[in-house]
Amino acid sequence: MASPAAVLVSNGGISPHAPPSAAAFLVSTPGAYTTAPGTLLWWTRHLRRLAESATLLARSRPNLLGLPLPRSRALDLDLLSIHSLVNPSVRVAIREMRTRLPMTKDEDLALTALVRGADPISGGGGAGLDVFVHVGTYSPPIFGESGARLAAAGRGRDAAAAKYASWARWVLYSTDPEEFGKDEASWGH
């Protein structure tokens, strides 16, 4: 059996099960997340955004972070804290991915890091949070006539400044793809 073209790491441990796609992972897992396609050139900015999203959700919408209501203590993550929580799992995931699937020069990795309230059974990755890192292959589309398009639909996030998985899940399930082609004003080139 061929190795999957993706790796899922939870609190530093490689999942023994075949990981889902990054989209399916976000659909099934609550929490604050960031996704970095391609190189990790701006990784510090992604981690800062992840720390801000997790802190904001813990304060204003702890249920979206997978934390119990009401929250008994405030979660305040700074950049150094999120680095120490997330980066060990990132290193494990990238190392495992490169072992499973030798990359060509035209391929790159897409990395999604998600933090959520710790599962009492797992013990968490620190700061009362579980850390998940999903790494898969990423081949950017060729730009031009059939290049990238963007459609914005649906309501905004409940916690507008935070990126969290249940909002991505709501958007994925609430949009009707057949409606997008009917109004060219909703498309950007």
From TrEMBL:
According to UniProt, the name of this protein is D-aminoacid aminotransferase-like PLP-dependent enzymes superfamily protein
| Origin species | Zea mays (Maize)
